[in-house]
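Supplementary notes for students who missed Thursday's class. We covered one full example, reproduced here. Read the sequence, then the structure, then the short commentary at the end.
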Amino acid sequence: MTTFSQSDGGSRRARPTGGFSLVELLTVIAVIAILIAILVPVASTVRDSALRGKTRSQLAQYATAYEAFRADQGHYPSMGAPGAEFSLRGNNAVFIETLSGFTVDGQPPTHPYALRANPRRIRYYTFTSNEFARAGEPHAGEIVEAFGNPNIHVVIDRQGTGVVRGSDFASLPSDRRPETLAGGVFFFVTNPENNAEWSWLTTWD
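Structure (token representation):
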């Protein structure tokens, strides 16, 4: 809006108000849009990196529990799997009961393998609610990593040689399998539901 005032000479002149012009307003909107376009991918990358770090920490704690079991029992827990690899998905009970000595509800173990492998019910690991998918989420009640993926696998050295071979990684594609790894226990996460945007996460890379 423009107002007019009477000058000393009797003439009238315009006094502009403090509002933005249309060009200025469009310029501000364009700058904001550019900043959003820059910041959103950066925030997504930071979040992804944080979740990957959290997952690696979670898997490292499981590996530490396996090492504690081996130090006490003389071998790594196989969880009853016939080969070197074990999948947590669908097998949470034996994993929890073997490593903690109790069920997820704090009751005495009932799984046959857990009863044999850890008869003294030694607590090698304490599970927390943060490791389980919550009610209403996909895979509710299952152990999941930080992205909510339950496809967690572990491969152990069953021969006691201190080496795990590529052929022991049954769930890994051949182009992803390491030839050999020095060590006794390794965790990795496989693709959840064939998600095209998912990237591999292993504890040895």
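Commentary. Residues 56-202 form one domain. The longest strand covers residues 2-6. If anything here is unclear, bring it to office hours.
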